[in-house]
Amino acid sequence: LDDLRFRYGETQNFFSKNLHYHLSTEELASANRCMEGWVAGLQMASILLSSAPDKKRLFYDFPGNQRYIMDFFFEEIVGRQTDTVQEFLLQTSVLQRMNGSLCDALTAREDGQEMLEQLEQQNLFIFPLDRKRYWYRYHHLFAGALKLLLQKNDPDLIGRLHQKAGEWFERNGYYNEAIHPAQDLAFLCLGIDDLRKIG
Predict the structure, then answer these.
(1) How many CA atoms lie within 13 A of 32 on its CB side?
(2) What pTM does this model have?
(3) I need a surface site. Which of 47, 106, 132, 142 has the fewest CB within 10 A?
């Protein structure tokens, strides 16, 4: 998947050819950072740019909540996977980085490493973080879409997944990372309480 991603110069050439709007160096850097060189994402960004009233704000407001991106992930990527893969993707979407053992802890399965390797072979928006392919992470926009889908389908599961992740990190000596799931869970609960007050 890394070979398919645009670098900064390629992103610059892409927008120069597809837009009449000239992006500044800062905007190009933001676009490339946001999309992580994902070509289809850059194409959708160019469509949004063509009609955006405030183009300078587009890439700062972009991550994770644009309808075109979410629809693409839901319909073209996640929706075409088997039930087993969909369940794995949703359950592991809460992780900033993952390995086979950690995935097993969250999914109650024993094939986490095989699943990660399968997702990588399918170019399913997942990146290895080391040469041994022990740690992986999802493209951040893909992870955002998965989290939205998980929130919609089973919001109660999110807290349990964060708790399992925290327990795994602590059990395996990653004490700093064990704190993050707990913090994420606290913010999640705070957000839910606030929504209930508003409702």
Answers:
(1) 18
(2) 0.69
(3) 132
- Helical packing angle, 8-18 and 25-35, nearest 10°: 110
User: Are 31 and 11 spatial neighbours (Cβ–Cβ below 8 Å)?
Assistant: yes
pLDDT tens digits, 115-172: 999 999 988 889 899 999 999 999 888 888 898 899 999 999 999 999 999 999 999 9
Q: How many residues can be counted in the chain? A: 199
Tokens of 134: 């022990």
Strand ranges, E, within the chain: 126-128, 136-138
Tokens of 34: 């946001």
List the one residue out of 8, 68, 13 whose CA is nearest residue 34: 8
Which H or E run contains 16?
Answer: helix 8-18
DSSP one-letter code for 79: G
- Angstrom distance (rounded) from CA 143 to CA 40: 16
Alpha carbon distance 31, 4 (integer Å): 16
